[in-house]
Structures are given as structure tokens and as C-alpha cells.
Amino acid sequence: MKKIILTLVMSYFVVFSLAQEGVTFQVEELSKPEKALDVKAYEEIYEELILKDYELRKWDVKDRKLKVQYDILAKSNAPDSLVSFGYHSFFNGMYTAYADHRPFVLSPDMMWLLISQGFARHIDSEPEKYRKYFVDFKGKTSLVVLSETDLLHETNPTRWEAVLNKFDSQMAKHTGKEIVDLLTANFSTTGITEKVASQINIMKAMEPYFEFVVLYIACGIPEITLQGTTEDWKKVLDKAQKLKKYDLAWWIDEIEPLLKEFINASEGKVNKKFWRNMFKYHTKKQYGAPKVIDGWIVKFFPYDKDGKRNNLKSLNGTSSLPEEIVKVDVKYIQTGNGQTTETILELWSGFLGLKQDPKTFALTPQISWMIRKKDVNDSFLLQKIKSDNDSYKIQLRVDEVPEILKELKEINKLDLYFNKRVSIPEWLKNIPIKELSIYGDISQQEKEKILKWFDASTIISINRESYKNGKSIDGIRIVP
Questions:
Q1: Are strands 81-82 and 141-147 parallel, antiparallel or unpaired?
Q2: β partners of residue 438
Q3: CA–CA gap between residue 307 and residue 333 (Å, rounded)
Q4: Which residue among 319, 349, 373 closes a domain?
Q5: pLDDT (tens digit, 9 = 90+) per residue, 225-284?
Q6: For residue 393, how many other CB atoms are within 10 A of its CB?
Q7: What are the helix (H) ranges across 84-191?
Q8: What pTM value is reported for the model?
Q9: Which of 311, 343, 373 lies at the terminal end of a domain, its last residue?
Q10: For residues 318 and 323, what is the distance between their CA atoms, to the nearest angstrom?
């Protein structure tokens, strides 16, 4: 039977001159981990995540001689190296702590960021349904923040922190201060990084209603540490309860009793049975199904990566988890000397990796944010697509078919995995394609349209059923 440990200690930290209390408590005795986990450089983690968006790894770039412009403008302060689990460092970090008997550290900021990310995904699932709670206009309104310096050449995070902070007051003019104050992290553990990360998450939640513009005129876990005070954890509960009115009672009701256990533990009243079940239940039956995760932490992930509600009881592996990093577009306008230039930026915010204690090997999720120039012309994607087309085949997971494919004169093999309903644009039929494989929910009308569009020169596979010249091909099955 796998077990978890927790040791009761009081620890004190300082954030912005405010006393910050913490408590470490013991659940069970377990063997200590044998060695530290591998770490990666802070900058390298962001670079790997950017490549992951293109379904590439660093060795792919080197092997295929691709030219990558990461265009990272600024990022929050963080340790030089972190344990990294890609887009799921919080969840998989906890999983690793559980499996290897490593202590784990939690803070009000971390749990509130998870709740806030869930709230943002909830709003994004049906933005028009919830529009009435926040704004009284249709479409999107531009929120414009003035910058006194040229931020495209500014790596100092404090400059960006000051600018991003201004969007709060801009949004509050339309939404009211209540929702902005509610979603903003304001605990004794909250540093500038945690606050800015929460502010970017607010921007993500309100993205269906606002365009963000920056204008520059220049011319199994052995040990848990809960950071913060009991009042902090009570504040997390209170803030979460205030989200109920946004059609979220179905979720908040589930996490309320969990947050109360955080309060109890911060007071020294540790429910060991509760903390043992943070990640999976301690039953032999469940250990026989290692891919099923049913600990209470799954309740903090209300939506999957496709925007569908999770059942809040269990997860079949981690492949359906939403990313723990949100991204928001910002339009940066520079005007002066009779010229105006516009640059699209991308704000990232969330859990980037995990700090690792060199002595105890305890893991602490690292909240971070970053700003980069967005590749609006998809120049790197075009590089990758051309390379894929020359070497084997193009594989894309999409909401809609990217128009960058128009740049290709012909396509050897094209695999399209649709996150939403399958929809093939008419312009695609004008590109010679040898093999076209389509995966996803598709209507009979869309299927018939596709089969009419492509002649005998194209072999079509729709959810692994093959066709040529509009007719089914017996004995041929396209396997990805």
C-alpha cells in the first residue's frame, strides 16, 4: 500500500513585509526519496513549451535545422532551475510526489490560481450566457493602457507588471470592482509574481468581452507544507463561495469541504485520512488501476482541455487535463514621428514548474508569467509544415483548418484532428493532396461534401474509414 507523510512544524516567511505563517504536518511515515529529480533551466522550460505548441521537441529543431524565434520579451522572477512537467507541472508534480514519497508544498495562491483557471474556463465554455454578469455591451470593447517606455525592448519584469496592473482598473469600469477584486490574489503569501499571474488569469476570463491594447506613444506525497496564515485559507474559501452566483454552485459546493480541511490543517487540526486521499484512494482495488486518478485534487479541475465538464470524481489519466498555463493576446501599438506600428503580443500565466528543496526534495509549484511576440504570420508553423510535408506527413490538431496550408502547392499526407466539429473549407479542395485523413465528430452532410470535393487522385480517410473517388475502399484502412 502506498502511503503519504506529513510533519507538523511552524515556519515563518516574509512577503512585502507581512508575516507569513506556514504549517508542516505528518500523515504517515514513509521511506524518503533516494535522489533529487532532474531540473531544467527556467528559460529552457518556456522554450520547450513554445515548441510543444508546434508539437516539436528541441532535437526536432536541431535535426531538421528549423529556425526558431522564441521572442520572449519578459518573464517573472523565478529560480534558475525548476523541475518541469510541461503544461501540467502542478498536477504531475503532485503525482510524482505521491509516487516517490516526496514532500509537497501548497499555498493559498496556488489553490486560488487553480480555482481561478477553472472559473476562466467556465466563462469561456458559454461566454454569451455569462455576458450579463460582467458587461452591458455586445461584442468586444478595447481596453487601452498607456506605456511610458518601449516595452518591446524591455526585459525588466517590473515595467510589465506596472502596465498589466492597469488593466484591472480598466476592466473594473465595465465589470465593477467586485469580480476583479474577487479573482485577484491577495493573501499573505502573495508576491508580485502571484498577483500578476492572477491578473493575467482575470484577463483570460474576460477575454470574450475585451480586447487588450498596450499603447506606447513615443514618439503520494510524504509531507505537505501549507504556506500562509489561517486567515489566508479562510479568504480562499470566502472568495470561492462568492463565485457561486456565476452558475458555479455545482463546482464550488464540491470544493468547499476541501477548502475547510485546508483551514483546519493550518490550525493544526490535521485530518490524515483526508490528506492521504489527496491523490487516489488508499485501496488495493484502485492501485490495480494506476491510470485512474480519484483523489480529491481532481475536483479543482472542473473542465477538460476541450471545455467539457469533468465529473469531479476521477480522471482517466492526464491526457484530458486542461493546460495549467493560460494565454491572452495583447495588441501593442507604438506611435510617433508620423508612424504607427502594431505588434501582437501573447501573455502567458500559470504553473511553469516546481522548485525542489535540495535537502528534503520537497516540491513547490512555481507560479510564473511571460510575455512574447506572437507569431501572427505563422512563419514557424509554415517552416514545420513544409518540413513535415517533405519528410513524411503533416499532422495538425485544430479547431479549424489553418489558412497557412494555402502556401503549399501540393500535400503528400495530411492528418487533421478536430477538437470541435469537423469543417473542411472549400479552398482545401484546390490543393492536390495524395492522402487526407480526418478525425473528429462529423455530420453526414459534411462527410458527403468532402467526398464530392476530392477526385480519384486523393485517398480520403474519415475516422479510419477509407474512400477514393467518393466510394468506400474495401480492405484499406489508414492508421495514424
A1: unpaired
A2: 416, 462
A3: 32
A4: 373
A5: 999 999 999 999 999 999 999 999 999 999 999 999 999 999 999 998 899 888 764 333
A6: 15
A7: 89-100, 108-125, 127-134, 157-175, 177-183
A8: 0.66
A9: 373
A10: 10
